Fold this protein.
Amino acid sequence: MKSRKTTIVKLIVPAVLLTVLLVMYINQTEVNQNQKMKLEAVAGAGLYQIWDNYNQIAELPSELADIVDLKLVKEHLIAVRAYSDTVDHITNSDLLLPISSSLMALSDRLPTQSNQLTSEDQELYTMLRNKITELIPLISAVYYVPESQEGAKVTLRLNDEKSELIELRDELKDIAGN
């Protein structure tokens, strides 16, 4: 009788233990999935804001009309910088923040007080717009799941196209001197 009770206990204890471990594993998997979804949502919102602000700069007139355009550029770049920090932190990368910092450094070379815009100011402004126009599709290629519509599915693991983004980051660092 005692050996039968011992055998039953030897079977029940591991079964209960296995069941508890399985429930804990399933619960942790759900928690991890929820956290991943939240991070993807935050990254997606940040990427949209980055895209929108860069797009607004790219849509400004190609010729500087006055100092107001330059102030708009700087306002958009300030917003991009904040969102870039968040997205870089979430994706554990160092791409968007250095790019936005370099673009900010370049925009700081443009005048903010005088309405006297030189040809050098125009050249720098044009270069900024061109780099931003080059950057916009790279963000989509690197931060979104391939084959998904833009804004449909953010990835927390950067795609293979990031080498082009790295090249642009390094080029902008060299130009900005930071």
Notes: The two ends are 81 Å apart (CA to CA). The CA atoms of residues 130 and 140 lie 17 Å apart. The chain is about 75% helix and 0% strand. The helical segments are 2-58, 67-91, 96-107, 119-143, 162-176.
